[in-house]
Structures are given as C-alpha cells and as structure tokens.
Amino acid sequence: MTLDVGTARDAHLEGSGEPWTLVFIRELRQPPAVVWAALTDPAELDQWAPFSAARNLAEPGPTTLTMVDGDQKLDLPAVIRVAEPPRVLEYSWGQDLLRWELEPAGDGTRLTLRHTLVEPSDHASVATGWHVCVVVLQHLLDGDPHGVIRGQAAKEYGFDELREEYAKLLVQPS
Predict the structure, then answer these.
(1) Residue (of 86, 87, 99) closest to 130 by Cα position
(2) Pick the CATH number of 11-169 from 3.40.1650.10, 3.30.530.20, 1.20.1250.20, 3.40.50.150
(3) pLDDT value of position 32
C-alpha cells in the first residue's frame, strides 16, 4: 500500500550538547481524548508506534516497551512518570524521556512530542522515525488504518530522503 509521508516540518532541537531534546509538533484532526487513547492503549499503539507496550500507558509505574524491527524485538524498560489524561503523558524509554503534550486546537489537537535522547544519536533519523509514525497515526485516527511501519520497513516509504530533509531542518543548538 502506498503512503505519502509528506515533507520534513514542525520540528526543532533544544539544549546544548548531550542530552538534546527533539521537539516535534503536529496538528491532528481529532480531539485530545481520542489522541490520548492512541498514545496509551496497547492495541492502538501497536498499529502506529515504533514499539509495542506491555500494558496501558495511562497509569503511572513501570512497564516494558518492545522495539520491533521485522522479526527482531528488543525489550526496553519504561516508567510512566506523568499521566494526566488527556493532556500530558511522560515516560522513560530506556534512557530516553518522552513527553507528549496535547492541547485543544479547534476541533482537533496540537500534539507536541519532546523526546530527550540521553545517548548520542542521529537526531534527523529520530525525527524521521516519529514523522512516519505520526503519519500512520493520523491515518489510524481518520479511520483509514495503514498498518504500522517499523524499523527497516520505513526505507520503503522514503525514509532516507525524508531523513536528509530533517538533517537540513534540524541544526543542533551550540
């Protein structure tokens, strides 16, 4: 199935040196409560996110998020630190910290993801990964599910070209 992932946009970096934070913003057509469910319900996460979740993420406490790339799986410890439905979800993922903020925007939601990466990483690849995931999320929320795109499968959807766009857009602060 063909999926147009669009172009690099609405992202920037915060911080100086390691760790740095990718700030990724999208306008979604659904209200915050609907987006919240997609961010926390394991069945919905499994249709768009780069990981599967061992439990619902709407409750604070430890869990496991499993990275999936084809037949390869990697369990990473996670701790839900903040769960304030339908506004803020914050959790560790391995050593990283993800903070999802949802604000009403007309009939929809302004989604802001702050992904703080502790380990040195390719910020353009991280942004590209979230970009592809959120495109799949929007299709899911629109009732037109595409199916999850994880790991190497993203190469079939223009990952390399999109990554180059983000590399130009995201200049690390000095």
Answers:
(1) 99
(2) 3.30.530.20
(3) 98
> What would the pLDDT profile of 126-144 be if each residue is shown by its tens digit?
999 999 999 999 999 999 9
Tokens of 120: 């040195």
pLDDT tens per residue, range 53-111:
999 999 999 999 999 998 999 999 999 999 999 999 999 998 999 999 999 999 999 99
DSSP state string for the chain? ---------SEEEESSSSSEEEEEEEEESS-HHHHHHHHH-HHHHTTTSSEEESS-TTS-EEEEEEEEETTEEEEEEEEEEEEETTTEEEEEETTEEEEEEEEEETTEEEEEEEEEE-S---HHHHHHHHHHHHHHHHHHHTT-------GGGGGGGTHHHHHHHHHHH-----
